[in-house]
Design brief:
about 800 residues, mainly beta, 14-stranded antiparallel beta sheet, 37 strands, elongated
Length: about 800
Amino acid sequence: MRRPSLSGYFLYAAILCALAVPQASQAQVLYGSIVGNVKDASDAVVAGAKVAITHVETKQSREETTNAMGGYSFPTLPPGTYELKVNKDGFSPFTQTGLSITVNNVSRLDVTLRVGGVTESVTVTGLAAALQTDRAEVRTEMASQQVQALPTSLGRNYQQLLVMVPGFSQPQNANSVPSNPSRALGFNVNGMSYSINSTRIDGAQSINVWLPHEAAYVPTLESVETVTTATNSFDAETGLAGGAAIYVQTKSGTNDVHGAIFESHSNQHLKAKPFFIPPGAVKPKLVYNEFGGAVGGPIRKEKLFYFVSYERNNDRESANQYVNVPTAAIKSGNMTGSNNPIYDPATGDSTGSGRTPLPGQIVPASRISKITRTLSDKTPLPNVPGDPLTQNYFATASYIFDRNRLDAKVNWNAGKLTMFGRLGFLRYNMDNPPVFGEMGGTQTSDVAGNPGHGWGDTYTIVAAGNYMLTNRFIVDAYFGWTTLGTNVDTPGVEDQQGLKLGIPGTNGPARYQGGWPKFSVSNYSDLGTPGAYLPYYRSDPSKNYVTNFNWIKGTHDIRFGVDVSYQAMNHIQAEGGSGIGAGMGGFTFTGGPTTLRGGPTSNQYNSYAAFLLGLPASVGKNVITSKDDKVTTRAWQYSSYVRDRWNVTPKLTLSVGVRWEYYPLPTRADTGLGFYDFSNNTVRVCGYGSVPAGCGVDLGKFRLLPRIGLAYRASPTFVIRAGYGITNDPWSLARGFRTNFPAMLSLDYSGENSYQPFGRIENGIPAPVLPDMANGIVAIPKTYAANSLPQKFKRGYIQSWNLTLQKELRHGFT
């Protein structure tokens, strides 16, 4: 696989630092900073004062000397509570306690020294840092107390609290439980697509590669220390995000042992009886338990610390679903309940004209297909009183969802070198029976989605460190790895029910081709394997490599670094095409074959008559042609930045930076992607045979993204901020081309018109013709669909700007 090269210096530094002290993310998202100015009672600057800062929980300390403007700066500080001391000959020592440093934030403490001796001292306790004094981006922060004290619903997900952040839409559940076992929420920010937000946990990018609007992992609530969000005018160190950049910092151990234990329970007795259940039905069972705990403390005081949090969720429900099934009369072929005639498809011409009705509105038993008769016999009868033709079957089944989550973190303070490692782990198990049991059908629990048995593991590993070359030059590096495993088996996937029914071309040798085909009859609920996406077996790893350099030069805080991200998909899933059927095939029955051209519009009697006659309007299936029956993608994202945060005066901070991001064309594990060529109706597979790597697509490598911001401290209680920035849309092209031809064939066959079936069900699905990959230029049948890109592709971007006035009021309000 060819990869774009970075400059030798940055790549060499990134590799060295990533190997030495790893993790994953952007810039200073794991750390905070404190800045300030020291002056005397006459407002004259105090140069050469010694400023020392100590982390209260771990006793880590650093020292700095004020510059010619009386300024000091401590970048790349682990978050927590600090004590700050200032000493200068001729002045009384100054001590500030209770100073809070949070991730991806700049705290400011301006100090006024009093003339005096060392025997006199000034101590200030409990500082409330209410104003954002040095950064121009629009950001919010939720501390641990808020995250754990504010109410969250079942599942204890911190994302539910993001509704309080300006610009966020209501966070909502997204996708099925098997595809999203963390139950990560989706949300739009400032009108942007919900797929271009970025969530990082302890710096590591947490992205569901296939479903980018979801985080891959949601840590236990007890482990969350702070949640910060940036939604406008990002600093140059923030990238690969379009709507919001969300940073989650998990807790670390300290010199003191702290712990927590919890258990919560919810059941149906605490809820009202659902309105939409049959009269006389018992209130459905719902038992939801979640329990766990956390503990953190020292392994070796002031040097080595640990933190562990565990949570388990057990969900037991009596799920239910209304679906539509045929009555006994309709199943037998008696269509006398229809106001429309049922026309004989064996009469008239190929356009549907000239047809005559079936005598007595009865489908002759001798003409009913043996295959559809078997399926009809396996379909349950209505069990809901009232209208016998709509939503007439109430299905119930036991739904189970179990989930375990573990977060563990170790911090090491080795003097100039500090490091930490974190492990996040999730294992889940789900059973969501289909409405028709072994005959399949849609899921009984709509909340969970995806009928069948789901299971999988998610792992996320982060390692990070920073090293003080000098008090004014610090290197920090990160590595993060996350892999999301999501799987669903449908009932009977081990068997070949389509072939057992006598339908050629349905099942195949691969597991994804097993089980019941889909049988879709208009106005009735599907039988068999629903949709065109089940079963699936996915393993999606992602990695980040980041190195940053922080240099304090006089009144300048200069930061620069590189960020490399890798995202991969490994899917055994025949999803796509027209939706007629997945790997085991599918059949769609409409009323057209039993309707007269120019006559009454077809109804459910017409469609079921066509089903009984075995006359599908369309048939299809999806076939994976890639190696090992696995569809793969590989995508890299490269970026670097430089930013200067300049304290122009004690009241004015100017931040100027530029970011470079490059998104190479994704590939597959063994070939390039395929793109449709409009000039000759072929698909060109990049880097294969005679086709050049990248297919000649120009993605643009030299697009620079400016960022600028200023913060003016008009008074100690009033700040004016303004910022502007351009951000790339980080959407990965891999998603749109995951199953593009020829990696997967979407067979889709229909009748000549809506009145003609595509043969009989006994004829099955035509065998696929595998593409000839000889020279990388593949002829595409006219019945297939394929995606493409223009030869000059322009990535989307977002401009954001803000003007913000912030005033501190009394009693902690701003």
